[in-house]
């Protein structure tokens, strides 16, 4: 078992979620562009990191993993106190997509790693380009036996 397995599984889980139009490795697409990010909105950009590795023996490590998922919306809605209920409902659809990210990943595992657990969900700072970005952090762990391979 290696980190690539978790990446592929996370990608498959995210691709299956309703409302997500683009899933990709987070390569800075939302930060490095000239006109518009080369993604379809709403998008899920994610990365998988080993945040801690503890030797089990000289060839095996217990690895703690962080899955970071950034959901970006090309947000143009209104939510002020003067907006009618229909416009407010349309403006707040991003909450539904965020909920589907949580429910779509929480507890998921293929049995080779511990189930994903959401550890945080935050709105990133307001952006000049008007995009709305919500960042999720999920944790997991697995036993890395790959050093035993010939």
**What is the strand content?**
35-45%
Number of domains as seen in the coordinates: 1
Q: Sketch the topology as an H/E string, one letter per element.
A: HEEEHHEE
Major sheet: size, sense and barrel closure? 5 strands, mixed
The CATH architecture designation is: 2-Layer Sandwich
Counting H and I runs of at least 4 residues, what is the number of helices?
A: 3
- Output the strand order for the largest sheet: 1-2-3-5-4
Distance separating the two termini: 14 Å
Low-confidence stretches: none
Please, what is the average pLDDT?
Answer: 93
CATH topology: STM4215-like
Annotation, overall tally of beta strands: 5
CATH superfamily: Phage tail protein-like
Helical residue percent band: 10-25%
User: For this structure, what is the CATH class?
Assistant: Alpha Beta
Shape by Cα distribution = elongated
Pairing-aware structural class of the strands and helices?
alpha+beta
Radius of gyration: 18 Å
């Amino acid at each position: 078992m290696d980190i690539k397995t978790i990446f592929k599984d996370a990608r498959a889980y995210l691709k299956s979620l309703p409302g997500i139009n683009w899933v990709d490795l987070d390569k800075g697409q939302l930060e490095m562009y000239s006109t518009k990010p080369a993604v379809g909105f709403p998008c899920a950009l994610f990365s998988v990191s080993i945040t801690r590795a503890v030797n089990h023996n000289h060839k095996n490590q217990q690895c703690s993993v962080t899955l970071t998922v950034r959901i970006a919306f090309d947000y143009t809605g209104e939510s002020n106190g003067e907006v009618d209920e229909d416009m407010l409902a349309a403006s707040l659809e991003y909450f539904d997509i965020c909920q589907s990210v949580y429910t779509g990943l929480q507890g998921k595992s293929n049995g080779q790693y511990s189930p994903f657990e959401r550890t945080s969900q935050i709105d990133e700072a307001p952006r000049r380009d008007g995009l709305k970005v919500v960042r999720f952090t999920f944790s997991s762990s697995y036993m890395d036996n790959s050093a035993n391979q010939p």
